[in-house]
Inverse folding.
């Protein structure tokens, strides 16, 4: 899994580049444009939730069929997945176009910021077919063990986006200045480029439609947990944006910048999570409890190192980071305070990030989901709202507070599990495998 993690981490890094590059160039172009991008960010998360969640269902189902040597049925499932991607895009594009302006008004107050959000959002959402297809094509390739092509395609797509961004935003030669619309077009162009590359060898016929329904049911049974968790994550960001909009659009901008930067700083943690799941699962099945403890010990140590580096950037260098995206004095004033406070919770976040994965790996889904919900749904939005009643600067305390509560709860559940293992080892006379 250590060999598989780097490609996955690289893919996640490249996916984050779309939003990061847009934010950097749009921030230089106009401050209200950066606010618009922050408002639309949750909609982009919904796109990812629908596209990746459906893709995960198809990927898992196809991998299972390939393991059973049922290649023909696996190819049909891939074809059905492509139809689902197109159908889901059509519904999402229609709904988003109808609600775009009312939605933008929940996260921004300035007319310029609302207009920027509507322009960017309409182009990105209606043009999201590339994302839906690329995600499906990539998952089809991955079900066959092909990790290389999706990563190469995502890199090429990111390069296209990076090249087009300044050209379309600021104009070049005969190409007119497009501003926020240019950033959106560059993003869509990059996504369609990725989709075109991954389409090679991924397209297959869906088979008779009368047989498709049972396959669709299986696909979403396998993919709905991923869709649900990402959707809940999106809902709480919309909730936070609505609260921050009551203070200023600059506050919404700061939150959007944080989540986009978080993508980069947390990528090593995501790779670590991917690595330890199969290793923990294998050793747990072998009742090698001591080895499981060592895996968690080293994983938490690595996580603490990574998060300590992230803490240094956010706590001691917030002004430098924000300067990459905005020169607005109010954004810097709010962002400097926000990043320092949020960064203080990074060390306790090690436990709230790694322990749900531990419980998932040993087959205990309830504690895993409980910790994730505690961190993202119950604690953070509630504390954020309560602290907002005191003042804007206090709202950011909700982040380290939520990480500490979820991390503390996770640590208690982990220690309880370890004690059970120790008791089981003694009662059954099991060797304490290393």
């Amino acid at each position: 899994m250590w060999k598989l993690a780097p490609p996955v981490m690289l893919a996640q890094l490249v996916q984050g580049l779309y939003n990061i590059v847009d934010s950097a160039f749009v921030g230089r172009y106009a401050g209200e444009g950066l606010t618009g991008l922050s408002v639309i960010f949750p909609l982009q998360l919904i796109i990812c939730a629908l596209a990746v969640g459906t893709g995960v269902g198809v990927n898992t189902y196809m991998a299972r069929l390939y393991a059973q040597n049922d290649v023909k049925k696996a190819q049909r499932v891939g074809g059905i997945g492509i139809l689902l991607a197109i159908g889901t895009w059509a519904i999402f594009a229609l709904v988003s176009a109808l609600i775009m302006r009312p939605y933008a008004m929940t996260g921004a107050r300035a007319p310029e910021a609302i207009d920027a959000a509507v322009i960017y959002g309409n182009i990105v959402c209606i043009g999201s077919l590339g994302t839906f297809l690329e995600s499906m094509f990539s998952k089809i390739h991955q079900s066959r063990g092909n990790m290389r092509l999706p990563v190469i395609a995502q890199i090429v797509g990111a390069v296209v986006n990076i090249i087009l961004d300044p050209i379309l935003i600021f104009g070049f030669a005969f190409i007119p200045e497009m501003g926020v619309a240019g950033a959106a077009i560059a993003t869509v162009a990059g996504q369609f480029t990725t989709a075109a590359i991954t389409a090679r060898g991924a397209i297959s016929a869906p088979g008779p439609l009368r047989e498709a329904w049972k396959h669709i049911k299986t696909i979403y049974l396998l993919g709905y947990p991923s869709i649900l968790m990402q959707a809940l994550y999106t809902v709480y960001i919309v909730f936070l944006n609505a609260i921050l909009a009551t203070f200023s659009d600059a506050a919404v901008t700061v939150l959007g910048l944080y989540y986009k930067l978080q993508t980069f700083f947390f990528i090593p943690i995501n790779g670590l999570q991917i690595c330890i799941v199969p290793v923990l699962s294998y050793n747990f099945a072998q009742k090698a409890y001591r080895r499981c403890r060592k895996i968690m010990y080293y994983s938490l140590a690595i996580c603490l190192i990574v998060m300590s580096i992230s803490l240094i950037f956010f706590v001691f260098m917030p002004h430098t980071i924000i300067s990459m995206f905005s020169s607005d004095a109010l954004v810097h004033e709010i962002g400097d305070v926000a990043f320092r406070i949020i960064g203080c919770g990074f060390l306790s976040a090690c436990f709230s990030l790694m322990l749900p994965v531990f419980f998932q790996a040993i087959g205990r889904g309830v504690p895993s989901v409980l910790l994730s919900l505690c961190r993202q749904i119950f604690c953070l939005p509630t504390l954020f709202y309560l602290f907002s009643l005191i003042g804007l600067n206090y709202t950011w305390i909700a982040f380290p507070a939520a990480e500490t509560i979820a991390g503390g709860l996770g640590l208690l559940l982990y220690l309880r599990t370890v004690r059970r293992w120790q008791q089981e080892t003694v009662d059954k006379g099991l060797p304490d495998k290393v």
